[in-house]
Write a structure and sequence with these properties.
By secondary structure, this protein is α+β, with helices and mostly antiparallel strands. It has helices at residues 3-8, 21-27, 65-71, 101-115, 131-137, and strands at 13-16, 32-37, 41-48, 51-55, 61-62, 79-86, 89-94, 120-122, 125-126, 142-147, 161-168.
C-alpha cells in the first residue's frame, strides 16, 4: 500500500465548536459554507479502472452491493468520494482529489448528477448563518462549516483535526 493510499483512507476530522459571538463573526465573514451533518457511517469511495472500493473512516474495507453497482456506472475516470452512509444511500459531501473547496463541491455535483442514482446523493447545503437551527429543525445531527479556501483535510495533519472544517451539534 502506497503512502497516498493510506492517507486517503484516513481523512481528517472537523473540530467541534459550540456557537457564540466569535463563531457568528467568523461565519459572517463570507468565507465559509455550511453542510448538513447526518447521523450515519462515514464511507470513503474509490473508483479506479471501473472497480469500486469502499472504506470506513478508520480504514476498514466494507461492501454494499447496490452502492458498488451504482458507482460502477461512473465512466468519467478515476474517482474518489467522501460521504455518509445513511438509510441505504451515500450522501456525498466532498472529494479528496480536488482543491479548493469550490472545485470539490462542483466535482461532487457533477458526479452525483451524472450517476443519477437514488443511492448516491449530495449532502444538503444550508445557509451559513441559519444552517444550524435549520439542520436541527429538519432532524439532522448538526452541521459542518467549511472554509471556502480549504483543501481536503488528511489525518496526517497534526492531531488529525482541522480548523478548516468546524462541526456543530447539540
Amino acid at each position: 500500500m502506497s503512502r497516498h493510499d493510506k492517507l486517503t483512507r484516513y481523512p481528517g476530522k472537523p473540530r467541534r465548536v459550540y456557537g457564540g459571538a466569535a463563531l457568528d463573526v467568523l461565519l459572517g465573514s463570507g468565507q465559509w459554507t455550511c453542510q448538513a451533518k447526518l447521523d450515519g457511517t462515514r464511507r470513503l469511495v474509490r473508483v479506479e479502472g471501473g472497480k469500486v472500493k469502499l472504506w470506513t473512516r478508520k480504514g476498514k474495507r466494507v461492501y454494499h452491493a447496490a452502492l458498488c453497482e451504482a458507482l460502477s456506472a461512473w465512466d468519467g475516470g478515476d474517482l474518489w468520494l467522501d460521504g455518509e452512509w445513511v438509510g441505504g444511500a451515500l450522501y456525498v459531501f466532498d472529494t479528496p482529489r480536488c482543491a479548493p473547496l469550490a472545485l470539490r463541491v462542483a466535482a461532487v455535483r457533477s458526479v452525483v448528477d451524472a450517476l443519477a442514482s437514488p443511492l448516491v446523493r449530495r449532502m444538503p447545503t444550508l445557509d451559513t448563518q441559519d444552517g444550524y437551527r435549520e439542520a436541527l429543525e429538519l432532524g439532522y445531527e448538526g452541521v459542518v462549516y467549511k472554509r471556502l479556501s480549504s483543501r481536503y483535510p488528511w489525518a496526517a495533519q497534526p492531531g488529525g483535526l482541522t480548523d478548516d472544517w468546524l462541526k456543530r451539534k447539540p
